[in-house]
Amino acid sequence: MKFTNKFNLPQTFVNVIHRPTYSKGKAHISATEIINSPRIVQLKKKYWDEIEQDASEMVWSLFGSAVHNILEHGKGDNHVVEERLHLEFEGWRISGAIDLQEVEPNGTITISDYKVTGAWAVMNEKDDWHRQLNIYAWMVEKVKKVPVGKLQIIAIIRDWSARDAQTKENYPNSPVATIDIPLWTFEEREKFMTKRIYEHGTALFEMETDGDLPDCTAEEMWEKKTSYALKKDGNVRAKSVHETQEAAEEALVKALGTAKKNEGFSIEIRQGERTRCKSYCQVAPFCNQYQNYMKEMP
């Protein structure tokens, strides 16, 4: 990977970025890669030396690394901190580094994962958090033969606001929030892992045989569909938002039929986009799926 420093961050930041501490060892795939798009995982491997990332884009990940030092200094007698587990499944060597395992009095394990994240993510928790922690639970039970009783995210909210905590519904009450994650049954976890290993195996085969990589899904691209907003002239907020232009036009006709004198309405087209591809995907410049999408955009 090529590192840049376009905004002249202090050299200490750049030095840390150049000295990564993460390694999945000799594993074929890590827990975080398993929940990622198979297309992205393979394109990252192929174009790793050409991918460019600026130091400014990695600042918050540095904070995440700092949290691990806090964990090490604050661990209790019943805590297992930053343990990396390895196992083989369906012919793949899998690894996963678990931030914190707490051994409870009844012998079960509580798994915690620390996230430095935004308030919005806490208020709209990600499905990937559920998947990641359930993979960890699956690994613990497979490797250690000890039951997992609880999963949780410990969110450190980088943009927390005391004012918003008082005024916004569902806003976190403090800069640190504990979020309980539903624990799937062992059978559900095993089924999920079988499916994901098959999907990653398919992508690996296509890459090695110069075939066509499976496309990213709408969810993996964080795709927002084009929508059609009915707006009253002069108003900022939409009166209603519709998935199709036909539905918006029907709403427009109804609105005009009941409108007061000199009251006008119009339809605003809110163009959809693939948010992850546009702003957050390192391999977007090398991805024919995204490049073809961009060519088709109006």
Question: Could you walk me through the main structural features you see in this protein, from its secondary elements to its overall organization?
Answer:
The mean pLDDT is 93. The protein is built from eleven helices and 13 strands. Helix 3 (38-47) packs across helix 8 (186-208) and helix 6 (127-143) packs across helix 8 (186-208). It has two domains: 2-208, Lambda Exonuclease, Chain A (Alpha-Beta Complex); 223-296, no CATH class. The strands form four sheets. Strands 2, 4, 5, 6, 7 and 8 form a six-stranded mixed beta sheet that branches. The protein has a three-stranded antiparallel beta sheet with strand order 11-10-12, with helices on one face. With 298 residues, the chain is α/β, with parallel strands linked by helices. It has helices at residues 11-17, 31-34, 38-47, 59-74, 119-123, 127-143, 162-167, 186-208, 245-257, 275-280, 288-296, and strands spanning 2-4, 29-30, 52-54, 79-89, 92-103, 109-117, 148-157, 176-181, 223-224, 227-232, 240-242, 265-270, 273-274. 39% of the residues lie in helices and 25% in strands.
